[in-house]
């Protein structure tokens, strides 16, 4: 049997941009992506602590060390610059593997989204 478990989480990052005219996705500082083991194009669940919205899109890398968290396309309408988000990815795995799996959890500085 396989189950879906949390693979990675970037906890409490601040939205730095919202670009309605971009094709779609979420732009994430590549340093944060690396720390959370998120790859380009990976599906990301976005939880908005400010308004309770939950949505899914895919990750694209932003400039390293920039702290960028930008929602693009239609998703930009579901956030405001300054909102606090939790970004989560999931993986399917055998239930026995899942019992010992440790997700990548990242807790960046809430003021600038940079790694401490």
From TrEMBL:
Positions that bind substrate: 57, 73-75
Residues found modified as Pyruvic acid (Ser): 25
Enzyme Commission code: 4.1.1.11
Cofactor(s) the protein needs: pyruvate
PTM summary: Is synthesized initially as an inactive proenzyme, which is activated by self-cleavage at a specific serine bond to produce a beta-subunit with a hydroxyl group at its C-terminus and an alpha-subunit with a pyruvoyl group at its N-terminus.
Active-site residues per Swiss-Prot or TrEMBL entry: 25, 58
Cofactor binding comment, as recorded: Binds 1 pyruvoyl group covalently per subunit.
Top-level EC class as recorded in UniProt: lyase
Pathway: Cofactor biosynthesis; (R)-pantothenate biosynthesis; beta-alanine from L-aspartate: step 1/1
UniProt record, GO biological process: alanine biosynthetic process; pantothenate biosynthetic process
Gene3D superfamilies: 2.40.40.20
Record GO terms (molecular function): aspartate 1-decarboxylase activity
Catalytic activity entry: L-aspartate + H(+) = beta-alanine + CO2
Pfam families cross-referenced by the UniProt entry: Asp_decarbox
Similarity comment text for this entry: Belongs to the PanD family.
Subunit (UniProt): Heterooctamer of four alpha and four beta subunits.
The protein, known as: Aspartate 1-decarboxylase
Organism: Maribacter algarum (ex Zhang et al. 2020)
Gene designation per UniProt: panD
């Amino acid at each position: 049997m396989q189950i879906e478990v949390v693979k990675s989480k970037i906890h409490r990052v601040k939205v730095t941009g919202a670009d309605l005219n971009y094709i779609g996705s979420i732009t994430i500082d590549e340093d944060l992506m690396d720390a959370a083991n998120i790859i380009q194009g990976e599906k990301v669940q976005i939880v908005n602590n400010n308004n309770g919205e939950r949505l899914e899109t895919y990750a694209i890398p932003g400039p390293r060390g920039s702290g960028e968290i930008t929602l693009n396309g239609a998703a930009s309408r579901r956030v405001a610059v300054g909102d606090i988000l939790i970004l989560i990815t999931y993986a399917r795995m055998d239930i026995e593997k899942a019992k010992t799996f440790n997700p990548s959890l990242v807790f960046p500085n809430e003021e600038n989204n940079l790694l401490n």
